Amino acid sequence: MTRTTRIIALLGALLWAGLARAETITVAVAANFTKTAEAIGAAWEAQSGHEVRFAFGPSGKLLAQIQHGAPFDAYFSADTRRPQILVEAGEARDFFVYAGGKLALYSATLPVDENAEAILADGDYRHLAMANPKAAPYGAAAKQVLEQRNLYERLKTAGRIVQGESIGQAFQFAATGNAQLGFVALSQLQDPDSPVKDKGHIWMPPTEDYDPIRQGAVALTRSRHPEVVDDFLAFVRGETAAEIIRRFGYDVP
Amino acid sequence: MTLFGIPLDTHPIWLTLQVATLTTLMLAVIGIPLAWWLARMRSRWRVLLEALVSLPLVLPPTVLGFYLIIALGPAGPVTDLLGVFGFEGQLTFNLAGLVIGSVLFSLPFMVQPLMSAFQSLPDEVLDAARLMRAGAVDRFVNVVLPLSRQGLVVGAVLTFAHTVGEFGVVLMVGGNIEGQTRLVSIAIFDHVESFEYAQAHLLSAVMVLFSFVTLVSVYLINRRLSARLG
Predict the structure, then answer these.
(1) Predicted confidence (pLDDT) per residue in B189-225, tens digit
(2) Taking 90 as the threshold, does the pLDDT of residue A84 lie above it?
(3) Any CB–CB contact under 8 A between B194 and chain A?
């Protein structure tokens, strides 16, 4: 390389660095996806040179915050309805499903892997934990599974159902043994750091017994860095992110 | 930084101290005149006003938080009102929102101890000060406040502690943004949700220890002062 080409190369490199300025985006993420999002975020930061900040919370709260001007660039919900509400209101674009969840019945003590249906109906348990069916998709799915077996009303009247405000709370009821049974997310049992990993008994209700639990994401139109957001969302749909999402116990559409 | 080999993000700790301190100072400025006014009020409306001040005790924090993001949001009535004075922007999802939310939520914790202190002042003391030609401000600063110091200390301590432990309102008004509005209580919640129990325990221990030391020192100082004043 002559001196001139070297200088030109250096100038080119400087110009390139100036063009690709590192931006920071803020992404609102449903609480159940906390760890998976952090792992994806770290991988994207390493690859893109940009920075992503997360705001975690229950999907419903995040939606209310976005509707009242929260400065988020993208929204990862625990359901598909809420992001679509924002798309219809013109506040969001590019809806896609980023993960699918599976419902699991967990028990630390009772052999639900062998005869879950009998245990649910007349088992020797005091409490069954589940998420609030109105607030959380996993709660709605659990309710459907129980209704299929004509158990929901009966257990409710008997005062055996304890409701957590989120799937995180329902999991805590069951993992601590305060509830002998709990409808939780499979991802909570498979998480590498889960306190109950490879412990207790698990039953997976047939997937046709409940509406699919699909988690949808959107880019928010208020974002000041749309191309950076698009880059992040494209990364979430890519193979690297798919591997991470599967590792944490979710399906990839 | 790391403590006992566990990674610890210190930003939520500083932010929490900042919010709690600002909230306590603001509530002292708002609470002292408000409590005095209510304590001396003889009108029949007083009962209604007292109930209004105590309402934050009754409402679920997340509900109060929801009302606040409506009122303080970009299109909210409070923001519109401030717009008249040339204010632009929003009061939510930043430090301002966290402090406003905490001030409202801790209002009864400051006002109630102050009111009981003001009410227990003997009228004779104020009359004596008046007879000695002390002006209203002079009377308040040199007679009322020193005699009601206990109430002010209790109110300030309760406000500070209550703000440090607050979760529902700040989650809603602040929005749990990493490095911006993520307070200690919310950071602990995040750690628990993502099975990072070591971090959750550590942060909880830091919080409990700090609060305990703060409370003990306040009570010690208060006892010394009481002994000196007799």
Answers:
(1) 888 877 788 999 999 998 889 888 888 888 888 787 7
(2) yes
(3) yes
User: Partners of A202 in the beta sheet?
Assistant: A106
Name B49's Cβ contacts closer than 8 Å, sequence gap at least 6.
B38, B41
8-67 in B: which are within 8 Å (CB) of A?
62, 66
d(Cα A249, Cα A189) in Å, to the nearest integer? 8
Q: Which two tokens stand for residue B189?
A: 């919640």
Which residues of chain A have a CB within 8 Å of the CB of B75? 68-69
Contact of A189 with A202, CB cutoff 8 Å:
yes
CB contact under 8 A, A53 and B179: yes
Taking the CA of residue A10 and the nearest CA in chain B, the distance in Å comes to 35
Q: pLDDT value at position B9?
A: 87
Q: What are phi and psi of B126, to 5 degrees?
A: -65, -40
In sequence order, the β-bridge partners of residue A54 are A27
The alpha-carbon gap from B152 to the nearest alpha carbon of chain A, in Å, equals 35
Whether residue B86 lies within 8 A of chain A, CB to CB, comes out as: no
Tokens for A179, please give them.
């509830």
Beta-strand relationship, A201-203 and A103-107: antiparallel
pLDDT tens digits, A7-61: 565 555 544 554 567 899 999 999 889 889 999 999 999 999 999 999 998 888 8
CA–CA gap between residue B150 and residue A86 (Å, rounded): 51
pTM: 0.79
Q: Residue A102 is inside which H or E element, if any?
A: none
